[in-house]
Specification:
This protein has about 475 residues and is of the alpha/beta class. The chain folds into 2 domains: about 200 residues, 2-Layer Sandwich (Enolase-like, domain 1), CATH 3.30.390; about 240 residues, Alpha-Beta Barrel (TIM Barrel). It has 16 helices and 14 strands. Strands 6, 7, 8, 9, 10, 11, 12, 13 and 14 form a 9-stranded mixed beta sheet that branches. The protein has a 3-stranded antiparallel beta sheet with strand order 3-4-5. It has a two-stranded antiparallel sheet with strand order 1-2. Helix 12 links the parallel strand 10 and strand 11. It is globular.
């Protein structure tokens, strides 16, 4: 066993009783769960950015982002005071879709919910691990959302997914603080001793005696493949450009492929226009191979829950294979083909499509219950997202591993600290090798201050995100 460094000994000692330390390639810390963190204060603010060009998905073009930035101050059993930081896009278009409410109305409801969540979180005074804190507080967050829906007479109730997105920056800040309290990455804080429970408390009895340590790696991998997103109004060919921005950045898919040496593409599809979806996929594949013919291309076909049924998906696959066998073979997985509420039509199963390619849930995935239901309905994969919460992401990673599911990490146009957070998840989940990261495309202004600190994430031009630098304390984003 490697000796415990003086730095880590001091960090542990300030927390109280020193637990056992098992040395791996880096010191791995274990101690009693009573030595968690206690929330002293919670502060938050909003930050606004405009997109350089609209991003169309799910039938809606988005041209702006509101970031929720959260700072928490916590104390330890030994009296040490540290701060944690979390940031996440509000993502109201994706998490709070409504035919009755405008963009501004859903965003305002989320901002009001953030205020309630801040108070609920700040009032929690138990000494605990962030996963335990989130486990205890999520029911209160959901109650706050229901109360707001009633008090504001909202025509569309605030969904659970939206509540998780709003709470995610608070959860991230707590994980950041937990790691900083020990002066290690938060991914080194997931032992049963630190957490205080095995996974059966947070998932089900299938996980009796199991630990998060087996589902996440304590160190990040050196790099992961970066998915480039092609939105519904993005230009694939020069002929599709009506007017150039001339801002010094790529403006067509071909230009992006050359600029970033891409090898992975996420294709946003309509799910209600079969001919367009087929033609779009084939056209993207053609351009990709023309620009980089020697690349082993991989695609994600993302329908954003708009397909009516599995027959639509099967016809899409059949026609793509017929028109471009190479494009069909390059599809790595299919993302959320049909509506997010799986219970609405339990017969709308994905078994046939999953025989061709992995089919993953995204909008549907809010808890273990929805994951298990999706498996019964033929889904074979799950999308992990920082915007659903760090606690949610690592727990669903453990469940996905347990049930032998295909896992991926997707984006919510995460810029700045939220991209560092998302990349951290992707780089610590075993067997997961790709991440979508589209803020560099749509809102580079929000990344400007982060380029020098993490050039491998924000200024990479080799089709990869270089994550080996994510070794700082907490979530690595802010020291």
């Amino acid at each position: 066993m490697n000796p415990l460094s003086r730095r880590h000994f001091i960090a542990l000692s300030t927390l109280g009783t020193l637990g056992s330390v098992v040395a791996q390639s880096t010191p791995h810390i274990k101690m009693a769960a009573k030595n968690g963190i206690r929330i002293e204060s919670v502060n938050y603010e909003f930050e606004e950015f405009r997109y350089r060009s609209p991003y169309k998905f799910g039938g809606i073009a988005v041209d702006r982002v509101t970031l929720l930035n959260v700072t928490v101050e916590v104390s330890t059993a030994g009296g040490k005071i540290v701060k944690g930081f979390g940031s996440m896009p509000m993502g109201n278009v994706w998490s709070y879709p409504s035919k009755e409410m405008s963009y501004d109305a859903t965003l305002q409801a989320m901002k009001k919910l953030a205020e309630r969540i801040a108070k609920i979180t700040g009032d929690f005074k138990e000494l605990a691990h962030p996963i335990e804190i989130n486990h205890q507080l999520e029911p209160e967050y959901l109650k706050a959302a229901a109360d707001l829906t009633r008090e504001m007479a909202l025509p569309t109730a605030i969904p659970k997914l939206c509540t998780q997105v709003t709470a995610s920056a608070f959860d991230a800040a707590l994980h950041d603080a937990m790691g900083k309290s020990l002066e290690v990455s938060c991914y080194q804080t997931y032992s049963p001793e630190l957490l205080g429970h095995d996974l059966s408390r947070y998932l089900n009895n299938d996980f009796k005696g199991e630990s998060l340590e087996n589902a996440v790696q304590s160190k990040p991998r050196d790099w992961i493949w970066m998915f480039h997103s092609v939105g519904g109004v993005d230009a694939v060919a020069d002929s599709e450009l009506t007017q150039r921005l001339n801002d010094g950045m790529p403006e067509t898919l071909g230009e992006w492929i050359k600029y970033d040496k891409l090898e992975r593409i996420k294709i946003k599809l309509q799910g209600e226009n079969l001919e367009w979806d087929i033609a779009r996929t084939v056209a993207i594949d053609r351009v990709a191979r023309e620009v980089r013919p020697d690349v082993d291309w991989k695609y994600c076909s993302d329908f954003n829950e708009r397909c009516p049924n599995v027959e639509y998906v099967m016809e899409y696959l059949r026609k793509v294979k017929e028109q471009s066998p190479q494009a069909f073979a390059s599809i790595l997985y299919l993302e959320q083909p049909t509506q997010r509420d799986l219970k609405v039509n339990l017969k709308n199963v994905m078994h046939a499509a999953a025989k061709e390619h992995p089919v993953v849930i995204d909008e549907s995935l809010t808890d273990l219950e929805t994951l298990l239901l999706a498996r019964e309905m033929g889904y074979t994969g799950a999308c992990l997202k920082a915007c659903k919460g760090q606690s949610h992401a690592v727990l669903m990673a453990a469940a996905g591993k347990k049930y032998d599911m295909f896992l991926c990490v997707q984006d919510l146009t995460c810029p700045g600290a939220s991209l560092v957070h998302s990349a951290g998840i992707a780089s610590h989940i075993p067997g997961l090798s790709t991440i979508e990261a589209n803020s560099r495309q749509y809102v580079p202004s929000a990344n400007a201050a982060w380029v020098k600190k993490f050039p491998g994430l924000f200024a990479s031009h080799d089709g990869k995100m270089h994550t080996k630098e994510l070794t700082g304390a907490g979530l690595s984003a802010v020291s």
